[in-house]
Amino acid sequence: MFNARDGEWLAHLTGVTKKGVGIRCERQVSAVTPPPDIDYCFAPLKHARLDYVVQKAAELGARRLRPVITRRTIAERVNLDRMRANVIEAAEQCNLVFVPDVHEPVKLPRLLCDWETERALVHCDETAAIANPIEALRPLRAPAAVLIGPEGGFTEEEKALLASAPFVTAISLGPRIMRADTAAVAALTLLQAVLGDWHHKP
């Protein structure tokens, strides 16, 4: 068993009643190991595809999951309890001693207005000025976040809003147009490789 405060412990079940269970903790197996300070901001998808990206974000070491409502967001409602259940399941399956925080949904303009300016915000844009995403990310440092838009992409107004923010960096994911769930995995992988705990200095 584990939690985000005490880490992972070897524990024994001591009793089961209608009101609950008893557990005896024997010894700590692993300390809490939070991943690099990288957030995953995303326009929610529907049902199974949302489950998928939430699980993969947890597995790839996102510290926080932040749903963002855009003009073209398809999902009408966001089931935060289901998202939390998915990140817990991913943590258990992958032996992570950390569970990402799941935030309340926020509209894109509000997200940008309230943004912590010391945190770099990376978003995917096939028209990014620097074609090589590694080169575009190299000047950045954690804390950081990646923003994945909706299936229909950002509107021109939203693109202009992102371009006007000094803390936003646009990166390209190559010549192919990806679905939002595929783009999420690709972008988080890039951030971990360049800014996160996949990066090893020579």
Cα separation of the termini: 36 Å
Computed CA radius of gyration, to the nearest angstrom: 19 Å
The secondary structure category is alpha/beta
Overall mean confidence score, pLDDT: 89
Beta-strand content estimate:
25-35%
Shape: globular
Largest sheet: 7 strands, parallel
Helix content: 25-40%
Following the backbone from N to C, one meets helices and strands in this order, namely: EEEEHEHEEHEHEHEH
The number of strands is: 10
Number of helices: 6
What are the low-pLDDT stretches, counting only 5+ consecutive residues below 50?
A: none
What does the model show?
With 202 residues, the chain is α/β, with parallel strands linked by helices. Helices cover 31% and strands 26% of the residues. It has helices at residues 47-59, 80-93, 108-113, 133-137, 156-164, 180-194, and strands at 2-3, 7-17, 20-30, 38-42, 64-69, 101-102, 106-107, 120-124, 144-148, 168-171. Strands 4, 5, 6, 7, 8, 9 and 10 form a seven-stranded parallel beta sheet that branches. α1 (47-59) packs across α2. The longest helix has 15 residues, at 180-194.
